């Protein structure tokens, strides 16, 4: 199994199944993606990546995004197009052919000099936020470019199972290794609450791979309001959480008191 084959299998099994729910407690935004809708966004994003940004599938992509449904889309799209993903800001070690993917209010790290920069406004429904443009002047504006790309994707050079897929925490994982980790996960019996950005293997697993492999659902929450946590746990059938280790102590204590930390595949590997 690979990330691409996990998505293909989920589409065959039940394309209408809820896969991701995104909420932003600061704005009140709520977005729900079925397997089919997620796959549609992955195809559009992979087409943009292949056609406009990085035709060479070997170029690494540095994903530096907050917890968001579009971060999950970008992760899966990079794998579909054969790009190894580095989690976190682009830096000099990524190489001169690297692509940086970041939010509109961010810029590449000093001295990174990526070959291309893609900027996301992270607006509702993936639409541009009025009057909001990338802070980095040479960035491709994802919000204004992605909608014109096709809903089906075919990789020029399909990635092989032994090709690099993820680089994080000093470790490298192939497409086959990620698929095997996800397939080995036990269904959580409910949803996984993810308040952590894509920063390590565990967050990548919980955000998209485990939901694809096990039939569970990820509830991605940005700007978590802990006062709303009990209601969210009940409403979304949340059974475990993945939150950043650097969270403020009072918030971390509140979350962990209500929910066990998810310790699925990859929890101690990056």
Query: Which structural category fits the helices and strands?
Result: alpha/beta
Quickly give the CATH architecture of the domain at 36-172.
Answer: 3-Layer(aba) Sandwich
Low-confidence stretches: none
Q: What topology, given as strand order, has the largest sheet? A: 7-6-5-3-4-8-9
Strand content: 15-25%
In the CATH hierarchy, the third-tier topology of the domain at 36-172 is known as: Rossmann fold
Count of helices? Answer: 8
Rg computed from alpha carbons, rounded to a whole number of angstroms:
17 Å
Mean pLDDT across the residues is 88
Largest sheet: 7 strands, mixed
Order of helices and strands: HEEHEHEEEEHEEHEHEHEH
| Tally of strands | 12
Helix coverage percent of residues? Answer: 25-40%
Shape: globular
Please give the CATH class of the domain at 36-172. Alpha Beta
Q: Give the terminus-to-terminus CA distance.
A: 21 Å
Briefly, what is this?
The protein is α/β, with parallel strands linked by helices and 270 residues long.
């Amino acid at each position: 199994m690979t990330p691409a084959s996990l998505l293909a299998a989920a589409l065959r099994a039940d394309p209408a199944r809820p896969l991701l729910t995104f909420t932003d407690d600061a704005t009140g935004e709520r977005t729900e993606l079925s397997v089919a809708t997620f796959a549609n966004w992955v195809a559009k994003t992979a087409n943009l990546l292949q056609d406009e940004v990085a035709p060479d599938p070997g170029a690494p992509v540095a994903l530096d995004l907050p917890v968001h449904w579009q971060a999950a889309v970008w992760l899966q799209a990079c794998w579909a197009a054969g790009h190894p993903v580095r989690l976190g800001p682009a830096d000099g070690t990524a190489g001169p052919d690297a692509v940086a993917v970041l939010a509109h209010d961010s810029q590449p790290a000093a001295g990174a000099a990526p070959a291309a920069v893609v900027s996301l406004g992270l607006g509702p429904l993936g639409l541009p936020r009025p009057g909001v443009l990338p802070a980095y002047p040479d960035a491709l504006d994802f919000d204004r470019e992605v909608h014109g790309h096709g809903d089906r994707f075919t990789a020029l050079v399909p990635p092989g199972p032994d090709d690099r897929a993820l680089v994080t925490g000093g470790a490298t994982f192939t497409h086959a290794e990620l698929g095997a980790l996800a397939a080995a996960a036990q269904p959580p019996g409910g949803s996984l609450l993810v308040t952590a950005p894509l920063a390590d293997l565990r967050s990548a697993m919980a955000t998209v791979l485990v939901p694809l492999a096990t039939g569970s659902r990820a509830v991605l929450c940005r700007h978590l309001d802990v006062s709303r946590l009990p209601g969210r746990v009940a409403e979304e059938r949340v059974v475990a959480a993945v939150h950043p280790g650097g969270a403020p102590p009072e918030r971390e204590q509140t979350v962990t008191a209500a929910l066990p930390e998810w310790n699925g595949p990859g929890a101690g590997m990056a």
